[in-house]
Amino acid sequence: DVQLVESGGGLVQPGGSLRLSCSISEFSVSSNSMFWVRQPPGKGLAWVSTLYKSDLTFYADSVKGRFTISRDNSQNILYLQMSSLRADDTAVYYCAGATLGDYLNYWGQGALVTVSS
Amino acid sequence: DIQMTQSPSSVSASVGDRVIITCRASQGISTWLAWYQQKPGEAPKLLIYAASTLQSGVPSRFSGSGSGTDFALTISSLQPEDFATYYCQQTDTSPITFGQGTRLEIK
User: Fold this and answer.
1) Which residues contact A65 (CB under 8 A, 6 or more apart)?
2) Which residues of A touch B98 (CB under 8 A)?
3) Mean per-residue pLDDT for A35-43?
4) Three-class DSSP labels, B58-77
5) Among A115, A110, A97, A33, which residue's Cα sits nearest to residue B38?
6) What is the DSSP letter of A88?
7) Nearest C-alpha of chain A: how many angstroms from B30?
8) What's the pLDDT at B15?
9) For each successive 10 residues of chain B (107 residues), what is the average pLDDT?
């Protein structure tokens, strides 16, 4: 079965950095489109970033210049490097994979990132 | 950015009821629309993509319709496990955007 497992979440001070990892099994990170989606506590879903198999990347305006999506093909891991973190970045971050265009048919369990002093 | 507006924001219904949730896009998106179900503490789950195609393993009581700007998710006969929050998502134009969610509660 396909599994996506996020790690690296936690509490970080405003202005700090954090790297999320998404370890993936039975699903190739290099051959499929990969995404990060976040959900602030009690709120809805918000797209953060996309990494296509062509290496093309996209970012939401709210994170552009602060977040970087990348992958390790040999380890089959997706990353989200987050810097200059702000309180409004507090959310559960989900990694997701798509085999159907940009429809997200595989999801991880989520990692909570809390930005607070 | 394309705005996705769902109606209603919340709805109460009983087991066996038929429920329709609608999603309106701020501009035409053809059929580039998906529906997701999310239960508390869980990741979203893809139910329908391309507006009306049922994802593998999803019960046939779920159906989707619409094109252009107006879409609907129909649950034909509510089951206890269907009480959750539902989101629409457009993939026509970057950035991908989601609706604000519709919470389906037990009456």
Assistant:
1) none
2) 44-47
3) 98
4) CCCCEEEEEECCEEEEEECC
5) A110
6) G
7) 14
8) 96
9) 98 97 98 98 98 98 98 96 97 96 95
